[in-house]
Amino acid sequence: MDADHVEAGPVPAPVPEIRMYLLFPEHRRRPPAPDQRRQYRHYLAQQMGPMIHALMLMATLCYGAAAVASTLIHSSPIPLLLRLSLLLPLLLVAAAARKARRPRLLSGLALLCVLLLEIGINLNSAGRAPGQPWVIPGLLLPVASSVIWLERWDFAIAMALCALGPLPVLLFGAATSVHIVQYLVYMAIAISLSAVLRAFMARTLFEQFRLERQLREQANTDGLTGLLLRNRFLELARLALGAIHSQQKPVCMLYLDADHFKQLNDDHGHAAGDAALIALAATLRAQTRPGDLIGRIGGEEFALLLPGIDQLQAQQRGERLQLTIRTIQRPDGPLTVSIGIAECRDADEGLEALLARADQAMRKAKREGRDRIVCAAGG
Prior knowledge:
Blueprint: H1 33-73, H2 80-84, H3 87-99, H4 103-125, H5 136-144, H6 152-164, H7 167-171, H8 177-220, H9 230-247, E1 251-258, H10 261-268, H11 270-286, E2 293-298, E3 301-307, H12 311-325, E4 329-330, E5 333-334, E6 337-343, H13 351-367, E7 373-375
Parallel strand pairs: 6-7
Antiparallel strand pairs: 1-3, 1-6, 2-3, 4-5
Helix pairs in contact: 1-3, 1-4, 3-4, 4-6, 5-6, 5-8, 10-11
């Protein structure tokens, strides 16, 4: 049998010339933008969750200290116990944030915390004489919370809460128009500063997310073809097989091997062999469905896990693959593959056993003359 092995992902339809591999990096599989945004939101929730929880606890502590200290500065028509009653919901929100894993839930809890703090600012500011620095907590809140918002929508809502929150005590208190204008100017400066801080934080976190994601992809995919490496393919296929068994759906394994590949390397060099593998991987990706898994098992060998189809359907898929692959031109003629197919008919059959049966069927196709499909006996 020829030496070497490969993997797969999605790309354009048939590749007519193996020299097309020069363009191949443009076609590597990338997750759609909505999927990438979803992954980024969950990444932010995971990375920033502990900080959000810590800031909530700090805000709760600061609010309690400020409420007690305010009684020493001026008398208030609002009883201290009523003002301190906000500590309980603030602690409950902080406790819920510690366990929150969903981004929107975490954002909602953070917004609720800001709303409670704004209510507290109004309660503690009631009865103050004009000119007292009651507005300082309201101006600090946008800046202090600027780095915790996961998306634009929650940042916008939070800034609106910060800006509008102290207005009741301003409009219905003893504040003059000068105080109101002064507050609006200071709040505009605070929100602008918050927007700048959040923009830089968001950019830094996104670059970190992109780099980590790129490193994970490099660790899990073959650098030549962009397909899953053997271990990663086996890991994902094992999980998929368990889910398919629980749903009582059929599943097939296809094992492909490029014919006369060693001869291609010997006669025309490894560059020609690499170009053929890249074109083959691109063709496999173009023929797969969203739920299919493709892996480069080794050198010029590929495996495809096809959920939801039986042996007959898998054979039809294999025949279409062979026809498309034959359009790829090697220096010495069309590229062909030998394919082995194994259907998993026993829920107790493991992935390794299924892969081994497909491999044996592929070897039989090699022995019988190559460029053909052989189905394994039932598992």
